[in-house]
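Subject: design request, 151 residues
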């Protein structure tokens, strides 16, 4: 799979940055919850994600990034709709996400992420810093009447 970057560049020449991540979900106290990360250098709440390493598949990058940022080793479940946007450097960025479940691990603050939190969908929609993440949240979690809180 060493030619993945070449294939991605050929098939999507407009995309400069490729990244992968996870929407980590759990059932707690009868309700589903989703894991969010806080990045102090950006001052935002988001889903764990990051750029591909050389020779890495999108799926492996998603698993690695989630573990690096949260300390949680997770298993990939369903692949989600692709998220596309312009990053802070005005580059075209494409992120491939999977839903994930926790296998093991525990969070320790690190240089990229200083806090994580489990949120019910309505609370997560209010906490997330980017509308694209809210849209992805609703693609994963069953919509509720509270969905319009950020509309």
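Subject: RE: design request

Done. Sequence follows.
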């Amino acid at each position: 799979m060493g030619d993945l970057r070449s294939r991605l560049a050929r098939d999507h020449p407009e995309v400069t940055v490729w990244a992968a991540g996870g929407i980590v979900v759990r059932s707690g106290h009868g309700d589903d919850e989703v894991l969010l990360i806080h990045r102090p250098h950006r001052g935002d709440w988001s889903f764990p994600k990051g750029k591909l390493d050389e020779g890495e598949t999108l799926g492996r990058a998603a698993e690695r990034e989630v573990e690096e940022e949260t300390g949680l080793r997770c298993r990939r479940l369903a692949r989600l709709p692709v998220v596309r946007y312009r990053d802070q450097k005005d580059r075209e960025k494409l992120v491939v996400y999977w839903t994930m479940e926790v296998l093991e691990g525990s969070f320790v603050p690190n240089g990229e992420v200083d806090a994580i939190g489990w949120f019910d969908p309505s609370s997560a929609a209010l906490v997330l810093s980017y509308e694209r993440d809210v849209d992805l949240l609703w693609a994963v979690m069953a919509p509720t009447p509270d969905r319009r809180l950020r509309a």
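The longest helix spans residues 58-70.
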